[in-house]
From TrEMBL:
Residues the entry annotates as binding a divalent metal cation: 45, 129, 133
Pfam family for this entry, one: DinB
Annotated organism of origin: Caballeronia insecticola
Keywords per UniProt: Metal-binding
GO MF annotation, one: metal ion binding
Entry-linked InterPro entries: DinB, DinB/YfiT-like
UniProt similarity note: Belongs to the DinB family.
Protein name per its UniProtKB record: DinB family protein
Length: 161
């Protein structure tokens, strides 16, 4: 399959998101309120961007006016929604063909600026965006003496072996 790298990237994203959500869920009470708020904003931001681009890939409008929720969800609900959307991406990528990956998608950024990206670029963006912000979350956890989840490609390959 020529889209195998995209499917693997999404599989790694899903695994890494679940690892982070698990660590945060088990340790949220160990960090102070300010750090917990920052952690929730990080998780929410990753998720909202995933949702926005999910809508773009589906050719559907979304209601987000920014790359964050207007009202912060509870941690448990956010974790469940993250898992649901990650599962959607995995199924979506598995169903794509080579031509589908190269198909352009027209959409509008939350800033109002029109944009066009190929489906493959959107998938890459979602994966890289999540990686960047999981790194932010991991640094915050480490500063508070909490081991973050493993989330590198080599960690995933070791886990999957």
């Amino acid at each position: 399959m020529s889209h195998q790298p995209h499917a693997q990237l999404i599989a790694i994203k899903r695994w890494a998101d679940r690892g982070l959500c698990d660590v945060v869920s088990r340790n949220i009470e160990r960090i102070n309120a300010e750090d917990a708020s920052i952690m929730m904003r990080i998780l929410d931001h990753i998720h909202v961007v995933d949702r926005i681009f999910q809508h773009h890939l589906q050719g559907m409008p979304h209601t987000y006016r920014a790359a964050r929720s207007e009202r912060m969800p509870e941690l448990e609900a956010l974790v469940q929604s993250i898992q649901k959307v990650d599962d959607w991406y995995a199924s979506y990528v598995d169903a794509l063909g080579e031509r589908d990956l190269e198909q352009a998608v027209d959409f509008v950024f939350t800033s109002g600026k029109p944009a066009r990206m190929r489906r493959s670029e959107i998938i890459l963006h979602v994966c890289l965006h999540g990686t960047y912000h999981r790194g932010n979350a991991g640094a915050l956890l480490q500063l508070r003496g909490i081991d973050p989840s493993r989330d590198s490609i080599t960690d995933f390959l070791e886990y999957a072996a």
